[in-house]
Amino acid sequence: MIRIISPKMNKPEQFHEKAGVTFESGWMTNNGPHLKEFEDKLTNHLGVNSLAFSNGTIALILALRGLNLSGEIIVPSFTFAASVHAIKWAGCTPVFVDIDEETFNIDPHKVTNAITSETSAILAVHVFGNPCDITELQKVANEHNLKLVFDAAHAFGSNYQGYPIGQFGDVEMFSTHATKTLITAEGGVLSTRNNQLLEYLKRARNFGFSDDNEDTLMDGTNAKMSELHALVGLDSLAHVNDSFEKKQAIVAHYRNALKNIRGITLQKVHAGNTSAYLFFSILVGSNFPLTRDQLFEELAANDIQTRKYFFPPVHKHSSYQEFNHLELPVTERVSSQILCLPSHTNMSSEDVEKVCEVITEVSESFP
Q1: How far apart, in whole angstroms, are the C-alpha atoms of residue 267 and residue 93?
Q2: Which residues pair with 93 in a beta bridge?
Q3: pLDDT single digits (tens) 14-63
Q4: What are 302-327's pLDDT values in tens digits?
Q5: How far is it, in rounded angstroms, from Cα 41 to Cα 310?
Q6: Which of 13, 189, 200, 312 makes the best surface tag, with the fewest CB within 10 Å?
Q7: H runs (alpha helix) in 283-346
Q8: 190 φ/ψ angles, rounded to the nearest 5 degrees
């Protein structure tokens, strides 16, 4: 079975040894030495202050609260539900806009058209790690005095015009869930140059406690990352560049094999940008011999896991019934045709070739 994801521990013996010492010390959480080391190394790697959290969703919620946002936040519907849930949990209203049909990212022109007197921020998503049009989004944010937040859950390792994702907007959020490039099993990271926000986040993730832990200065929560999760992160971060290079080789193999197949469209990454490619995604168009769902089943029959992601788009979810009537034509078409192929770093070249062969054989078996 070629799985859609395959988390990897690079040096399990070292992890077990350090985990044992951690248990013996009794310092399992509460800003321990492994967490401090992990955050220091993240900050150095990204070139911007970075904090770790128990998961990406709570990190994003705290980021939105820390920016004192209210009213409406513009967001794509072609995203994981947590992007939008965070807006609701922060006490704001999501305003869904359409995406670019080539990059699958939020369309800056649609953002401009959606701005009202109630708009306080733009929450853009680097879909599958593909950097948004950051220059245009920042221009829109500046012109309308809006905060710009990036959901970079998929984008650790991505670059925009030579600079690491994590250095843009008011704050960026990475997921370090076991499905991602940088993993802590469960977790999330916020990166920001806003020192006031940084201090809020440090306190908010620890119940809002004062420095002496005797008083609470805000209505914080428990969003701390444990020492064991930080150890997983340190193992992953030490090998993240090698993982990125292997991922790029897998992607190059896919692109070369699938680029000329009739009915298959590949996600566009603009020149000067690099994507971390959480998944390698394809659109299965009407002129491909099978529908997206039929190709999904054909690949499954060949022991290849794929994912219809993001399907359905969030504005069609039951929890967002008040938005079900919205028409977002590009989002809905992309969502109905999207199929994410496995691209994890445990894949062999033979695995990648097998995926390509199944898709190619299907395409050639019909006139």
Answers
A1: 29
A2: 72
A3: 999 999 999 999 999 999 999 999 999 999 999 999 999 999 999 999 99
A4: 999 999 999 999 999 999 999 999 99
A5: 32
A6: 13
A7: 292-301, 329-337
A8: -115, 135
Task: Report how far apart the first and last C-alpha atoms of the chain are (Å, whole number).
Answer: 30
Q: Are strands 159-160 and 338-341 parallel, antiparallel or unpaired?
A: unpaired
Q: In a 10 Å sphere around its CB, with 0-12 CB exposed, 13-18 middle and 19+ buried, how is residue 7 labelled?
A: middle
Nearest residue to 187 (alpha-carbon basis) of 37, 38, 365: 38
What CATH code would you report for 12-238?
3.40.640.10
Architecture of the domain defined by 240-364: Alpha-Beta Complex (3.90)
For the chain, how many residues are written? 367
Cα gap 18→69, rounded to integer Å: 41
Q: Are 302 and 360 in contact (CB under 8 A)?
A: no
Element (H, E) at 30: none
Domain ranges of the chain: 12-238, 240-364
Enter the tokens of residue 335. Answer: 């969502």
For the record, the structure tokens of 73 come out as 């936040």
